[in-house]
Amino acid sequence: MPLNIPKNLPAIDLLKKEQIFVMDSLRAATQDIRPLNVLVLNLMPIKVTTETDLVRLLSNTPLQIELKLVKVSGHTPKNTPIEHMQEFYIGFDEIAHNFYDGMIITGAPVEQIAFEDVRYWRELTAILDWARTHVTSTLYICWAAQAALYHFYGIPKYELPSKMFGVFRHRLSDPHLPIFRGFDDDFFVPHSRHTEIRRSDIIRLQDLSIIAESDQAGVHIVMTRGGREFYITGHAEYSPGTLDDEYRRDLAKGLPIHIPANYYLNDDPAQGPHVRWRAHANLLFTNWLNYYVYQATPYKAEDIRYLGEL
After folding, report:
1. Catalytic-role residue among 142, 170, 191, 213
2. Is there a catalytic annotation at residue 142?
3. Average pLDDT, the chain
4. What is the 3-state secondary structure (H, E, C) of 177-229?
């Protein structure tokens, strides 16, 4: 897909080495195509890694996408150079008057902090409210999913006795949903989190549908508003080495951590990861872009405010 991203974004060179096609803003400007406008609110501390993971998946359809990276003003990341933030990220106030076809809000390493105690909570909730009237369809990933479900529906998060860490088998509740077009009967997804949302809290609300879950990892994908919002607890976007990096980082810090389940070949870190989620990750993002963004968004962006359920 011709993915229109800032010309010098580090993800471009990283993905070209993987033979993944991306198009920078200069080349995209020569195509006479109305691109899909997609925002990414990146709350992760190491921005480049998350950017690369998402661009890898967004670049797998024939649709042209113009991607914008957004930051919250109430937080300065410690693990990303300030020069990178200044060159590639914009503040929410710069785009609040616009309308967008799609939006992705990432997780953040604040899940063990009460929602209201997160430094940028007030700004984030303002963005969540804005997205409901200014974005055709939004993906909330990991902590962002928990935060949005809490903000919109009052669904709490619960501390887990140990970190949910590994790659787990999932099943679909309705394989005919367009978001699952091409999926197998079961599929694998990486998880890495200390908290969970519970099925019992979700099924009490008619507006919410659990559309994918796992016997081990619990609720995975919740859909509402006919697909205008998806709440995803796992990390389909993870690259093959992400869980390995997290595992070795926590070991080096002396933190309590177990080998990620179902991840290493023969459960042996020395043998490296055994990737079982890449195909379904690509399907998930491709289907979202096609069926819930491209085919649902109005021709005039400002008409998004009048959309009901898809």
Report:
1. 142
2. yes
3. 90
4. CHHHCCCCCEEEEEEEEEEECCHHHHCCCCCCEEEEEECCCEEEEEEEHHHCE
